[in-house]
Write a structure and sequence with these properties.
The chain is an alpha/beta fold and 182 residues long. It contains six helices and six strands, in the order βαβββαββαααα. Helix 2 links the parallel strand 4 (71-74) and strand 5.
Length: 182
């Protein structure tokens, strides 16, 4: 049986939503998987709504649309309100608890609350909460191996932002190593 991850990442423009998806797609391609990446954002971009649908599969992908994600990353309350109900039963929801205060309404999905924005502020990684969230996604789903993170990051980070390579890796590691139970 083939494995397929239908991932929806959502938040405000400027939170690195699209970059997170791009990174995951490169991680999937490194493993030879079939991938799609479908970005969506409001007209304002920075500060407006943004989402990114990613599919990583062992089999060909028929459509890039993700209407029933198996994994949801939310980085703001409006996105949580909008997409929590769409997650397929048995799925995984990862919430930036620094920004989203409300508790989950679903009991048929695994919800992980991680204070990604606060963790970044504490570790001098302001602006990289998206990658903390991706680290938690990797830990909880196994969508890729930590061994592949550096290669995927090299392909994802544009030349003009190469100075952020190590910071992005550190942010992923923070999320990966975060223990919700303390």
């Amino acid at each position: 049986m083939s494995k397929e991850y239908k991932i929806l990442i959502a938040g405000f423009g400027g939170q690195g939503i699209l970059f997170s998806g791009k990174f995951l797609v490169y991680a999937g391609m490194i493993k030879g998987r079939e991938v799609t990446w479908l970005p969506s954002y409001g007209p304002e971009m920075r500060g407006g709504t943004a989402s990114c649908a990613v599919i990583i599969s062992d089999a060909p992908v028929g459509s890039p649309m993700v209407t029933d994600p198996s994994v949801l990353i939310v980085m703001n309350t409006p996105s949580y309100d909008r997409y929590e109900g769409a997650v397929s039963a048995g799925g995984c929801v990862i919430v930036d608890s620094s920004i989203v205060e409300r508790p989950p309404t679903r009991t048929d999905v695994d919800t992980f609350r991680i204070p990604a924005t606060a963790m970044c502020a504490e570790h001098g990684l302001v602006g990289l909460a998206n990658m903390v969230m991706v680290g938690k996604l990797i830990r909880e789903t196994g969508v890729c191996n930590m061994d592949d993170v550096a290669d995927a990051m090299r392909k994802s980070v544009p030349e003009r932002k190469k100075d952020l390579f190590e910071s992005n890796i550190k942010a992923i590691e923070l999320g990966y190593n975060f223990d919700q139970d303390g």
